[in-house]
Amino acid sequence: MKRGSILTECIAILAIAAALGTAVNVLRTDKEQRIPFFGKYTDVFTPKAAPSAPPAPAAATVASRQPPVAASQPPVTIHPPPAATTLGVKPADPPPAPPPPVKAEPAGPVREVQLDEILALHKEEDTPFFDARRTRNYDQGHIPLSQPMSVWEQEALDEKISNLVNELPLDVTIVIYCGGGDCNDSHMLADRLVAAGYKDLRIFKGGFTEWVKKGLPVEKDGQIVEGPVQVPDPGEEKK
Amino acid sequence: MMGFLRNAWVRRALEATLAAVFVYASYHKIIDPPDFAKQVYNYKITPGQLINLVAIYLPWVELVAGAALVLGLLGVPGRRGAAVLVGAMLLVFIAALSFNLLRDHPVACGCFEGSSAAPKTREELFSDMWETILRDAGMLVMAAWALWAGRTSAGPEASGAEAAA
Q1: Of A92, A112, B11, B47, which has fewest CB within 10 angstroms of its CB?
Q2: CA of A109: how far to CAs of A234, B56, B138, in Å?
Q3: How far are the Cα atoms of A40, A48, A211, B134 from residue B131, in angstroms, in the given order?
């Protein structure tokens, strides 16, 4: 058999695979399984930080996800006002050392927050919660009142974001969570929502795994199940 | 020794093994493309625009190449092209895993199971990556062997006659 015929065979196999792949993806009726041919993924080439890195402080702003203008701004430092002095009068005691300057968090649309803040937001029932995990994971159990919005089911996601922009004001606070641990789905969804114009996105860093571990109630099939709950696949990746 | 290496039955066994592995590997990826897209994304190698193209088409190349190897056992032409494609895919898989090992980025292989598989520690993932590279290297040798053993024959009948001779 000659080299030319091997090449012909390779081309034939690739052509059949391309035809089947295209046909099956176009004909899929389940939007959760159909993906657009060209993805809209962000932060593609940056590997996850090694776990030995120091943990981010509570409610830290996600610096790497700031828009370029915000990221280039130096952190704002607020100095306390100078203490009032009386002219000509020497104070009996040396003035106390000024407290260290308070560093204000730079404003940004995306923030990672901890469980206590999430619980406070969850009490306000008008704060929307979005579950960025796969819909099948959501179906196995999720934070009560949250909605599925998997960043991987892009065909369905485009439609959901389009509807969301029509229904929800852009300045509303939105909570996003995924499996916790190394899960990056929340950040990816946050990027999509920032691109859609949303300005206040809080990412629950511990994710559904922490929610379950704390024994908080879980919603499944429309029923609220009081914790602690056994969930088959919280979507966590161990460190 | 050369007779064994070029034995048609040995070559068929190699091709059947590769076919089974690749058809099986394609299954979960075809069933759930978003899951495979997530796994491709986790490698942090493919540009964002191209991730879905890889997730849509790569499993079908695996399946059709595997099927061509099976059909080749029945005398249908295409097995040598399939062996070349299988080898090329294995080279890409080895390169992708090696690159991530070099930059200390643990990644689940995504070869035979979806992202919902049991979570693993960083050390377990690195260990799996080494195992997968060795396994892929072994299959690469098998593909090259099958290609080389069948290079003078057009089909299994010819190879069988050649081996019998």
Answers
A1: A92
A2: 27, 33, 49
A3: 32, 22, 34, 5
A11 contacts on B by Cβ (under 8 Å)? 81
- Structurally, chain A folds into a number of domains equal to 1
Range of the domain at B54: 2-150
Selection from B65, B55, B136 nearest residue A10 by Cα: B65
Is residue A198 in some structural domain? yes
Query: Tokens for A32?
Result: 């959760």
pTM of the entire predicted model: 0.74
Instruction: Tell me the nearest-neighbour CA distance from B134 into chain A, angstroms.
Output: 23
Question: Does residue A82 contact residue A89 with C-beta atoms inside 8 Å?
Answer: no
Domain assignment present for A157: yes
The ipTM of this complex is 0.87
Q: What is the pLDDT along chain A (239 residues), one digit of tens a residue?
A: 555 689 999 999 999 999 999 999 999 888 788 888 998 887 667 665 443 333 344 333 343 333 333 333 444 333 444 443 334 344 455 555 555 554 445 568 999 999 999 999 998 878 999 999 999 889 999 999 999 999 888 888 988 999 999 999 999 999 999 988 778 899 999 999 999 999 999 999 999 999 999 999 999 988 888 766 666 554 544 44
Q: Note whether A32 contacts B34, CB cutoff 8 Å.
A: yes
Cα nearest neighbour of B69 on chain A:
A13
Give me the CATH number covering residue A119.
3.40.250.10
Asked if A155 and A109 touch (Cβ cutoff 8 Å), the reply is: no
**Residue A205 neighbours by CB distance under 10 Å:** 24
Contact A235, A133 (CB under 8 A): yes
